[in-house]
Fold this sequence. Notes:
Mean pLDDT: 86
CATH class of the largest domain: Mainly Alpha
Strand order of the largest sheet: 1-2-3-5-4
Structural class: alpha+beta
Helix content: 40-55%
Number of domains: 3
Number of helices: 10
Low-confidence stretches: none
Oligomer: single chain
CATH superfamily of the largest domain: Transferase(Phosphotransferase) domain 1
Distance between the termini: 67 Å
Largest sheet: 5 strands, antiparallel
CATH topology of the largest domain: Transferase(Phosphotransferase), domain 1
Strand content: 5-15%
Number of strands: 10
Amino acid sequence: MNQEATSKWSSFRELERLDASGKVVLLCDERTGQRLVRKKISLYSREVYSYLMEADFPGIPKIYDCTEAGEELIVLEEYVEGTTLRRYLNENGPFPEEEASRIICELCEILIRLHEGKHPVVGRDLKPENIILTEDLHPVIIDFDSAKFVRNEKNDTMLLGTPGYAAPEQYGFGASDERTDIYAVGVILNEMLTGCIPMEQTVKGTCGRVIRRCTNLDPQARPKTLRSVLGMLGYKKYLPPGFRTGQPTNMTIGAIGYIANAWFTWELLIASDGNLFVNPSLALTWLAISMWTVLYGFDYLEIRTKTPLIGRIQNIVIRAICYGIVWVFVMFALIIVISAVFQ
């Protein structure tokens, strides 16, 4: 490693090895205290990693640097708190169908951004070991060592993939594209529901039909896009926060919150003598601020994630502060606008 590369890593302290080979290491940046992951990759596409670093996709670790050193690529990326889907399954067993569907749908959303980006990327090695579940059970894809750009090819130039999760075209029967990831998504959904890959045991019902379509040996018989998979699973993306997961606890808390907000808004609209619309400005201000807080705080339709420029900030604390500043700015803007309208 040359002097420039050595200087680049001088501020990082090794905390823990995250794999048996020692090529994936948890680091601490002593300048900021931020924890990061350094990976040394032997088989890789530098172009793909550079693109992922520039594009900064939600649902994958933020990549801060990728540098070639000899025959390896050294990648510095965000450390994602959580546990792998493999470990979660080993410790807790299969998921309830609603929860498994919700997680798979969120995984599809991540992959859709990759598939439909400026330069479409296919992962080619989706499996439980390469998916982190955060504390609140949201998936993050952490491995793109086998990823490639989707191009018009008859066959893959390199045979990659994990047995059981790799589609037939990854073994020389065609070229990998979006449908290759769709195959792996079907296998993962089946394993989340049964603990087994489809060739060992399958499920029935809606999820079973989705799995069979996704894991068809013929790519032409699979859903053409992951948006089709979302439709088949009845993804509730546009439902309000609290109702998207289908979990009774979240839905109950959400319903109570929305009802309480509506009741308080109504109370602000009427006077003690029962006359309506006495203070519409105050009621509308309260309603606008509370709904903005719910939408931005829970990142509804990625409103917060899509805030320009902030997602590229490397320091997590500074990024959170910037999100807070945006929330406060919009809140005061709403107050000013509503007050001006009712003057």
